[in-house]
Amino acid sequence: MQLKQDFFTQLPGFYSQVTPQGLTDPKWIGWSRDAAHLVGLSQPTESLLAQLAGNKSIDGACYYSQVYSGHQFGGYSPQLGDGRSILIGEAQGPEGSWDVALKGSGLTPYSRQGDGRAVLRSAIREFLISEALYHLHVPTTRALAVIGSTTPVWREQRETAAITVRLAKSHLRFGHFEYFCHSENGSNEKLTQLLHFTIKQHYPHLSCDKAGYKAWFIQVVKDTAKMIAHWQAIGFAHGVMNTDNMSILGDSFDFGPFAFLDTFKEDFICNHSDPQGRYAFNQQPGVGLWNLQRLAQALTPLIASDDLIYALNTYQTELVQHYLCLMRNKLGLYQPYLKRESQAQDDEDLALIGELMKLMQESQLDHTLTWRQFGQITPTQQHVCLRDDFVAKNDFDTWYLRYQNRVGVIDNIEQWQGLRDRANPQYILRNFLAQEAIEAAENGDFSVLEQLHQVLQRPFDEQVNMSAYSRKPTPEEAGIIMSCSS
Ligand SMILES: Nc1ncnc2c1ncn2[C@@H]1O[C@H](COP(=O)(O)OP(=O)(O)OP(=O)(O)O)[C@@H](O)[C@H]1O
Ligand SMILES: [Mg+2]
Fold first, then answer.
1. 254 CB within 6 A, ligand 1
2. How far is C-alpha 99 from the chain's CA centre?
3. How does DSSP assign 241-297, residue by residue?
4. Could you give the CA distance from residue 176 to residue 390 in angstroms, rounded to a whole number?
5. Which helix (H) or strand (E) holds 149?
6. CA 49, CA 169: separation in Å to the nearest integer?
7. Any bridge partners for residue 17, and if so which?
8. pLDDT per residue as tens digits for the range 269-280
9. Which residues are annotated as a binding site?
10. ipTM over 0.90
11. Is 244 a catalytic residue?
């Protein structure tokens, strides 16, 4: 790995140098060939294992943990930071630069009451979901590998420590800006330094002046809105949308108690530790804006309020337009000759989508499997097997008639259906699938994880003999609830 050290050399005072604590008997548990390619690696070798486990030093690496703060479940925590994660620098790959983080590598000055570790089950979940979201075309951080060990860790019971090797175009979070806004007693020196670093590294086409700042924040709003539109379209609940888990680049970031929806339920809560549903599925768009407002607040010393408000006001339109684009694609409503749909058409389509979701919820249908059926229907025909699944047949018929009218004439039905299959995945990372892979791995069998990882790399393709990976969960399997304990 060719490592650069831009953050480390340019931003002293933004991190603490740390020594990884190492793992006992490290073992490769998961390896993403795709992600390895991004950082110019080909094989999971023994030497690399010792290095990424923190047992052997890496040429060119600097070891540091970043400081940040953040709003957690609505309240401000003035100092957080990487309590269990160590960055080693920016790996240079064929498609650009990637921060490499060893998540779970031991105590840091920001560990507070924690042990600096991640347990194997949470490392596997982060690994699988990072790679799954990427293949679902959702903006996300990536995972190179999971390393297991015999190092003991105590949660509700004794478990073993693991490391997820995370790759991210940036580890800058909304919380970085919040920390340097509130910790400087009004000098704004570091906040300015941070903003200039961010713009130069990640938005090199923008200038570090008033106009550049405004354009930058508009872009952050846009990228955040786009990420959340993807989550809503694909049925992904993040679970812990604290501002320290919001990447400045709009990549899905920090995967804890996340879940895809099985049965569609708009107010689905995936996080056992969130009984109020602050981060429920249907709250995510609003929370995205709330988090951007916290970021804007932290930027007020540097960016004019009018500019911040202007950018925040674009959020809803950005989100809705991106969501509409994704949903039209799922339903086959796209009309290539119309450059931009009219407001009336947008409203009509949103109503059509909303009505379908309502019917899905009433009939307790599986979100992913229902959408997948759009690749098999012929909207010009009266009868569709999709209808069989809905309880309120009359309501479905009314909806379907509106849908047929909206779809209109289809020149090439096979092509139309093929496009629906490219928009509606067959395979998602259902919690029970992740759980099977985790339990097997905890018992020393990594093949289940490997197979699941393989399937999730082609979520839109019908894969032979893989129906076990696309079935909906049994009621018992659907009851798996995740907590923040990781
Ligand atoms: N086991 C732990 N030991 C020390 N600190 C921890 C531990 N678990 C979480 N933290 C810290 O608590 C804060 C909130 O945790 P959160 O779960 O959002 O982040 P994370 O999953 O640890 O890391 P990241 O956000 O980098 O993915 C962070 O500062 C994190 O470093
Ligand atoms: Mg976090």
1. yes
2. 16
3. --GGG-BTT--B---SS-EE-SB--TT---BTT-TT-TT-GGGHHHHHHHHHHHHHH
4. 47
5. none
6. 22
7. 64
8. 999 999 999 999
9. 81, 83-84, 103, 115-116, 166, 173, 245, 254
10. yes
11. yes
Is the Cβ–Cβ distance between 102 and 126 less than 8 Å? no
Using one digit for the tens of pLDDT, what is the confidence trace for 172-202?
999 999 999 999 887 899 999 999 999 999 9
Nearest atom in ligand 1 to the alpha carbon of residue 82 is 31
For residue 415, how many other CB atoms are within 10 A of its CB? 9
The Cα-based distances of 319 to 263, 311, 338, 368 in angstroms read 24, 13, 20, 21
- Answer whether 104 contacts ligand 1 (Cβ < 6 A): no
Q: List strand residue ranges (DSSP E) for 149-223, in order.
A: 152-154, 158-168
Ligand 2 centre to CA of 242 (Å) is 8
Identify whether the C-beta of residue 429 lies closer than 8 Å to the C-beta of residue 456: yes
**DSSP secondary structure string for all residues of 89-131:** EEEEETTEEEEEEEET----TT-TTS-S-EEHHHHHHHHHHHH
Q: Would the pLDDT of 289 be above 70?
A: yes
- Residues 405-422: tens digit of each pLDDT: 999 999 999 999 999 999
Residue 373 is classified by DSSP as G
Q: How far apart are CA 40 and CA 46, in angstroms?
A: 17
Q: pTM, whole model, 2 decimals?
A: 0.97
Query: Which one-letter DSSP state was computed for residue 472?
Result: P
Residues 49-107: tens digit of each pLDDT: 999 999 999 999 999 999 999 999 999 999 999 999 999 999 999 999 999 999 999 99
Residue carrying structure tokens 């339109």: 317
Tabulate helix, strand, coil % of the chain (nearest 5).
Answer: 45, 15, 40
Q: What are phi and psi of 51, to 5 degrees?
A: -70, -50
Q: Which of 84, 115, 173 to mutate to test the pocket of ligand 1 (most atoms within 8 A of CB)?
A: 84
Options 25, 34, 59, 244, the catalytic residue: 244
Residue with CA at minimum distance from ligand 1 atom 31? 83
Which string of DSSP letters, residue by residue, matches 3-16?
EE-HHHHH-TTSEE
Look at ligand 1, atom 19, and give the residue with the nearest C-alpha: 254
Query: Closest Cα to atom 23, ligand 1: which residue?
Result: 254
**CA 99/CA 91 separation, integer angstroms:** 6
Ligand 1 centroid, distance to 103 Cα (angstroms): 9
Angle (CA) 110-168-162 rounded to 5° is 55
